[in-house]
Amino acid sequence: MDTLDDLFRRLEQLNEIGAALSHERNLDRLLERILLAAKQITHADGGTLYRMTEDGRHLRFEIVRTDSLAIAFGGSSGQPLSSKFPDLPLYTESGEPNNSMVAAYSALNLQTVNIADAYTAEGFDFSGTRAFDARTGYRSQSFLTVPMKNHENEVIGVLQLINAQDPVSGEVRAFSYADQRLAESLASQAAIALTNRQLISQLEELFESFIQLINTAIDENPPTPAATASGCRS
Prior knowledge:
single chain; globular; alpha+beta; 8-stranded antiparallel beta sheet; 46% helix
């Protein structure tokens, strides 16, 4: 059960995290900080951060962490994701929404999904989760999946947290209502920070391209000696 002191402490953490995210300039570090912060304030053992692909039809794995298994991919881990984690399709081959996958469902329906136990949950396909557990000996239980919506209410990614742990006993438990609200608030702040970072990067690239264009124009059309002399007399 969430105590009042614990809630106040986690609210303070949320404020500190929001301020830190707004100052992070490196995109990979920003994505990593978002997931690590979400894990921290919800006491989650594992988590994944997905980003929407440019075509809006897939979710791309960006950061994966599971503390108890020492699993770390993406971000500062130095372990690439592309070969191990293929993009998650938002639509089936027939064009229907891929609502059987919980992360896809969350993105498509702009809804948070809080599942107490993936092994007893109905309506979602957790066969991949069961296969992972069979390979690793892990027990994926509680899931909290939150869409990351920017200031225009567009989904730009999904934050998925796995196996909330009791901070005292360490036992796996369901994600509480407080966990969910904190994660939703963080996802909203993170989406805005991520959108701002992308906009700034695009502006920086545009500025660099403009400078290169000017330099190319100067190289191709250098000033004539007459024009230079005229400029000196003026």
